[in-house]
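Appendix B. Extra example for self-study. Work through it before the problem class; the solution is given directly after the inputs so you can check yourself.
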Amino acid sequence: MNEFDFIDQLRRQTRSRRHSARVIKGIGDDASVIAETGDRDLVVTTDLLVEGIDFIRNATPARLLGHKALAVSLSDIASMGARPFWSFVSIGMPRETWDTKFKNDFFEGLLALADQFGVTLAGGDVSETKTGIVIDSVVLGEVASGAAVLRSGARTGDQVFVTGTLGAAAAGVKLIEKGARISGKSEVERRESARPEGASGSADVRPDDDAIQSLLLRQLSPSPRVGWGIVLGEEILATAMIDLSDGLSSDLSHLCKESNVGALIDSALIPLDEDVKHLCGRRALDPLALALHGGEDFELLFTVSPENIARLPKRVDGIAISRIGEIRCDAKTVRIHEKDRTWELKPEGYKHFD
Amino acid sequence: MNEFDFIDQLRRQTRSRRHSARVIKGIGDDASVIAETGDRDLVVTTDLLVEGIDFIRNATPARLLGHKALAVSLSDIASMGARPFWSFVSIGMPRETWDTKFKNDFFEGLLALADQFGVTLAGGDVSETKTGIVIDSVVLGEVASGAAVLRSGARTGDQVFVTGTLGAAAAGVKLIEKGARISGKSEVERRESARPEGASGSADVRPDDDAIQSLLLRQLSPSPRVGWGIVLGEEILATAMIDLSDGLSSDLSHLCKESNVGALIDSALIPLDEDVKHLCGRRALDPLALALHGGEDFELLFTVSPENIARLPKRVDGIAISRIGEIRCDAKTVRIHEKDRTWELKPEGYKHFD
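Solution. Structure tokens for the complete assembly:
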């Protein structure tokens, strides 16, 4: 039994119990939705990050870990079309880590990202562990009553979109596994010298080293698409949405399963990250495989009904979107069209337990 | 720097930032309080439980661990005078644990306690760990706007009360350290044969074995005082409240510090657990030390202004309360009177990091 099966089992168990009528969406989406007493719904997500599983300590500066812990939860709130407001952090670490500046750097990174989106760190817990750092990041946000964008709202004919570009975070993991590390340059210098995300200039003039550093940052310091989430939710543009945490093949499969539909996507439309294409080209690797099955891009995958496509903004916070396919009901699976053939795209994204 | 100092530092850092005006109480209480859009305030708590630190795996049946993970958070909600509604659980475990029935038993215990208080398991996260089980339990509850009971509301002359009896959970830990284990009897049989909590019959007729099992259950399967929390909050009876998680000496010190007052308590008024007295008597141990400094009783410690004392119910859900002292401002410390002397009661409760 993998974790998705177990979560399905828990979902059935909780459904069979007398439960709060105010739970609009419980187990089984990127976040849970609860009716407030006023005219808003509360959106709640929790994300557990474990050393050695979700991050490698010696490849992950504490400040970036703080950033990422909050970013993954902000991404879940964005994927519900909600606006994030409050962060809670439970963190455990061994005594020898406690005695370093890790905890200060961690919260410095987390609070800097929180400030960027007007999020308040409002509570949490601190504990000791025997070995290894563990973080549970909890974020609460809000949407107008009934306006949360679930995984289950996609309908036949809806067009499938993603924000930004894909494959960079997975390439970053591969680079870390091969021993690449964030350079001594400050992150600010690094970010300033990095190509603007989504820019499509020629990759060939870009030195490998800069491309590598950029991919490491996409893995270690992802940018949650908070602005897009708010626009898609508040303008009632997306019919269904999920964030790309496990990988496109898995996450689109989750969305289709919850919506009881299928999808057909076109490989030529998938927005591959330029740095990934550049480095893969030199190493005879397949950038498409990274984009399809690599996780943690934390882009938003969403569906839009045909009559609303003209209302979609071109960019939000400088990030463009790409149409990659459409929702179909001729089969309840995800299929992909590449050149002159079409095949079923099996979910091959990340699982903890097989 | 211990965790309390670090949490104070974070609290100052978050205060100095532009932050959500809707955060009524952020870092620094048993739970955080956030204004909803309607006529309620949301109360949020997170509690991290780590194997080897917060529980010993071979002494802790999975079902009881599930119960306790929720119980500690329900206790925090109770200590705010709030009503619990929704639970979120992030859980990490190694692959070899995943493949056992641990996860099913854990959630069976958690859901049974949730059902008891009408709480819905509404979400969470699952991850792998390299070694050891880690759980973050998040509970959301509500109070009427402005009615949350903070640590900071105690005033000179208020009387100090605790629910139930003290020292049993700490005695349970000592027994576990000496190798005592929950017997094969089902928990239901055990609970049914156990003396009703708060009963004051003669302890001498009680066999040691039953007393030991009862103390182990007080440690492994605490009963959060949800009913008392709701009554004290909704009837506007408590001026300040905290739950006894770290130990009476530490928790009363936290409450006094937040309220900027002192307290004088009377050792003769402290409600010692009968089983603790019985077993300590046989072993020449001091039950008072366990009651003062032992943590995890998860009783409520609260203050009531003199004019409201007559309105206090005698019992809620069968649990009595005891007046143990009063709030003073002649000194900003906690003092204890025993026989014919009075001394300062230093906080000697549990800390993760000294």
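Self-check: Chain A touches chain B through 68 residues (CB under 8 Å). If your reasoning did not lead you there, revisit section 3.
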